[in-house]
Amino acid sequence: MRVVRQLNSEEKFNRPILTLGTYDGVHLGHQEIIRSLVEKARTENKESVLFTFDPHPRKVLYPESYSVKLIDTVDEKLEKLKELGLDTVILFPFTKEFSRLSAMEFVRDVLVNQIGVSEMHIGHDHHFGKNREGSFQELQELGELYDFSVFQLPAIFLEETAISSTKIRNAILDGNVEYANQLLGSSFVLQGKVVKGQQIGRTIGFPTANIDLDNTEKIVPKNGVYAAQVHIGSKSYHAVMNIGTRPTIANNGSVTIEVYLFDFNEDIYDQFIKVEVKQRIRDEQRFENIEDLKNQIQLDEISARNYFSSLI
Ligand SMILES: Cc1cc2nc3c(=O)[nH]c(=O)nc-3n(C[C@H](O)[C@H](O)[C@H](O)COP(=O)(O)O)c2cc1C
Ligand SMILES: Nc1ncnc2c1ncn2[C@@H]1O[C@H](COP(=O)(O)OP(=O)(O)O)[C@@H](O)[C@H]1O
Question: Any idea where the Riboflavin kinase domain is (predicted)?
């Protein structure tokens, strides 16, 4: 898969069939749209292209008031898109200046003149260009003018629910990761480097790998305890994760993300780990003493082990 970060005369496109959007999470609905686009492009010997922005438009337009929290980092998104067989992803550098282009100017200057779009597939509720003024009708008129066709795609449902990135983000913030994972069609992931904590974990029999998220835009599930699957290099472990302020032992209010891996005893400081968040177990609590905390973590381990054995 080709990743284009800057459009210039070196980057050539073969009659691209293009879709446009943030595609946060690359959920089941997104996957269906992309699969059909890829298939059509293959049949017609054209190039399948996904056009997205980096950084996220809201981050550029409202840097103070809006902290964008997304399901996937750009790298995570690219990995999922590659799996779906897209030929090309354009990560267009979004700027304030760019945001002032009208829908018409964007289509003409970028999609037609720089990319040579032959067909566009857009979501049922997609709007684009300055103030999100560009509608499907306008795009169709521009298509007639500049000779490309436009298809609007219906919303995709799982049971009764129209799948959307917003719904998934809300489920994650509510701790409902099982539902989020169902709509995503894969597990929500947190990844980063293992950093040193206060070194208390090992003294209570539960050493925990504290993760430093490498990305501040990543959405973090609601504080609490979760069953998790941890990947370190090519190895994978069942684990239990705590997200929160650790009120029993700390009072600085900062949130940590830490995992206790089952049947594991290695030094993994500075290693990069990937955590698939599977199921919420309970809220984080303040215990009277470390002994009570320890007893509860033992129960959490049992809950997480039960979750994993129920999958077999
Ligand atoms: C499964 C699990 C559940 C936890 N639950 C709580 C909790 O409910 N309340 C709390 O204050 N800390 C909780 N913790 C955090 C512990 O306080 C923390 O792991 C321990 O103090 C070690 O800290 P350290 O990594 O800085 O050494 C939990 C940790 C794990 C692994
Ligand atoms: N089963 C395990 N799960 C997580 N980390 C482990 C495990 N066994 C050993 N470790 C190592 O121990 C470290 C955590 O020990 P801990 O006393 O909790 O210190 P810290 O406060 O620095 O996290 C981890 O970062 C890792 O290198």
Answer: 183-309
Q: Which atom of ligand 1 is the closest one to the Cα of 259?
A: 31
Distance separating alpha carbons of residues 202 and 190, to the nearest angstrom: 23
| C-alpha dihedral sign at 54, 60, 63, 66 | negative
The conformation of residue 5, written as its DSSP 8-state character, comes to S
| Buried b / exposed e along 153-185 (16+ C-beta atoms within 10 A) | beebeeeeeebbbebbbebbeebbbbbbbbbbb
Instruction: At 154, list the tokens.
Output: 């219906």
Give the residue whose CA is nearest to atom 15 of ligand 2. 207
Which residue's CA is the nearest one to ligand 1's atom 29?
242
> Per-residue pLDDT averaged across 140-160, rounded?
92
Q: Determine the distance separating the centroid of ligand 2 and the alpha carbon of 264, expressed in angstroms.
A: 10
For the stretch 193-239, pLDDT in tens is 999 988 888 888 999 999 999 788 899 999 999 999 999 999 999 99
8-state DSSP, 224:
E
User: Rounded to two decimals, what is the model's pTM?
Assistant: 0.93
Distance 262 CA to ligand 2 centre (A): 11
Q: Could you give the domains of the chain?
A: 2-162 (3.40.50.620), 188-310 (2.40.30.30)
Per residue in 225-278, pLDDT (tens digit) is 999 999 999 999 999 999 999 999 988 889 999 999 999 999 999 999 999 999
Cα–Cα dist 53/70, whole Å = 13
295 lines ligand 1 (CB under 6 A): no
CA of 3 to the centre of ligand 1 (A): 41
Q: b/e per residue, 241-264, with b = 16+ CB within 10 A?
A: bbbbbbebeeeeeeebbbbbbeeb
- Residue among 175, 253, 168 at smallest CA distance from 221: 175
Residues with CB under 6 Å of ligand 2 are 194, 196-199, 201-202, 207-210, 260-261, 264-269
